[in-house]
Amino acid sequence: MACQSSKRAAALECNYACKLNLTLRLTRCAYYKLACHEKGPSRWTAEEDDIIRQHYTAGAGAAFIETLLKNRTLSAIFARADALGVTSGRYWREDEL
Hints:
Layout: H1 2-20, H2 24-33, H3 46-57, H4 62-68, H5 74-84
Helix pairs in contact: 1-2, 3-5
C-alpha cells in the first residue's frame, strides 16, 4: 500500500510540475511544504493505550477495539498491544493450564 501511495504522490508531483512550468525539484519542495502528501500514522495517545489495556486484556477482540479507535487498523492494534506488553484475555495463559 505504501508503494501505491508513493506512486500516486510522484504522479501528482510530476503533474503539478508540468502545469506550473516548474522543475520537479521545486514542485516537490512546495508539495511537501504545503502538506499535500499523505501523512503517516499519528502517535498513540495515552487514551488509546488505556483502551487497549482495558479491553484487550479483558478478552475483547481487536475488531471491537477497532470500532473504539476509529483511525487505527487491526494490525496497528495488534502491534501496539505487543509493544505495550499486553496479552489478550482470549487465550489461556501458562499459569492457567
